[in-house]
From TrEMBL:
It comes from the Bacteria. InterPro entries: Quino_amine_DH_bsu (IPR011044), WD40/YVTN_repeat-like_dom_sf (IPR015943). Residues 1-19 form the signal peptide. This is DNA-binding beta-propeller fold protein YncE. Keywords: Signal.
């Protein structure tokens, strides 16, 4: 696929493949369903975000160029809910009681009043933990009440924060993109805690995803060059890099990642003109690829990955490249 085609599809998609050992979590090795999101909405959509729901499969947030509304699309049913048009950089999170929250320049519960946020623009990183919404924009950090928008605390990070995740001890982890990718631990009140960990010593990386397993293992994904055609998966345990897995064929993917519930396997999508679009399973202990699931007959462009609430399926947002032209699709894999 050409760079021009990849760039066009990136606008549409903004952001397992284990063996027989059942202790590694649910077996994820088959495309169970595909949902044509364009068809579900009734127009060519712009894909904004994909969020895990607390009680089932993920929900997609999409819009359309020039439209005065956006949509929530429940997957894999394809059921849609029309909502007022959202900002292109908006993210979606869903509370424990099932309320979707649109996070952009402001915080908007679906069906509720618009609540101001303290960052002066849409955040680069959003994390919902219980009733607290953690936000990052450049070096600014904030924690707000998810129900009222009231600011609980603010802080400054040592560099631009791109991703946030919650640690099992209640603290936070953050990826900072400044002269390389750095992992930072934060207390619940957003203060740095402990020594930062360099994940990209040569300084060429661009962070793309961050997850933390139930045992506290940090899993980060990143591009490692300006061409975005090579990537890396890194695990950190007790403040030290443990596993590094280099990835080829990242040209046409946002390089999002998911981790199975036991924290043993990570999943990424690899796709390029020279690499078929595949969900790829990576053993977090060894960095080895353990299996793949074909998503397209050839290449495609792919964005977010989100698990179902019980971890039994993954949903991947993407589009295959074929004679019919691109069509925004959700692939449900289990």
């Amino acid at each position: 696929m050409s760079r021009a085609a990849a760039a066009a599809l990136a606008v549409l998609l903004v952001t397992a493949c284990t063996g027989g050992d059942r202790t590694a979590g649910p077996r994820i090795d088959t495309v169970l369903d595909t949902v044509d999101v364009d068809d579900a909405v009734g127009t060519d959509v712009v894909f904004y975000d994909l969020a895990t729901a607390p009680d089932g499969p993920p929900v997609a947030l999409v819009g359309a160029a020039g439209a005065d509304q956006s949509w929530l699309v429940r997957l894999p049913s394809g059921a849609t809910t029309a909502i007022p048009a959202v900002e292109p950089d908006s993210e979606l999170v869903i509370t424990d009681d099932g309320t979707p929250l649109i996070v952009g320049t402001a915080l908007t519960p679906v069906g509720g009043a618009v609540l101001p946020l303290p960052l002066g623009g849409p955040p680069a990183a959003v994390l919902l933990a219980g009733d607290t919404l953690y936000l990052a924009r450049d070096t600014r950090l904030a924690a707000v009440d998810a129900g009222t928008g009231a600011v609980r605390t603010t802080a400054a990070a040592p560099g631009p924060v791109t991703h946030l995740a919650r640690a099992p001890d209640g603290g936070l982890t953050a990826l900072v993109d400044q002269d390389g990718v750095v992992l930072l631990r934060l207390t619940p009140d957003l203060r740095p805690h402990g020594d930062p960990v360099e994940l990209d010593p040569d300084g060429s990386g661009t962070p793309t995803a961050l997850r933390v397993t139930a045992d506290g293992t940090v899993v980060a994904a990143m591009y490692v060059n300006e061409a975005l055609d090579a990537g890396r998966l890194v695990t950190v345990v007790d403040g030290r890099v443990r596993t590094v897995a280099d990835l080829e064929g990242t040209d046409d993917t946002a390089l999002d990642l998911a981790v199975d519930p036991p924290g043993r396997v990570a999943y990424v999508v690899l796709s390029a003109s020279y690499h078929p679009a595949e969900l790829t399973a990576i053993d977090l202990a060894t960095g080895e690829r353990t299996a793949t699931v074909a998503l397209c007959g050839g290449a495609g462009a792919f964005g977010a990955i989100a698990p179902s609430a019980d971890g039994s399926t993954l949903t991947v947002a993407g589009s295959c490249i074929d004679d019919g032209g691109p069509s925004t699709t959700a692939f449900v894999i289990g």
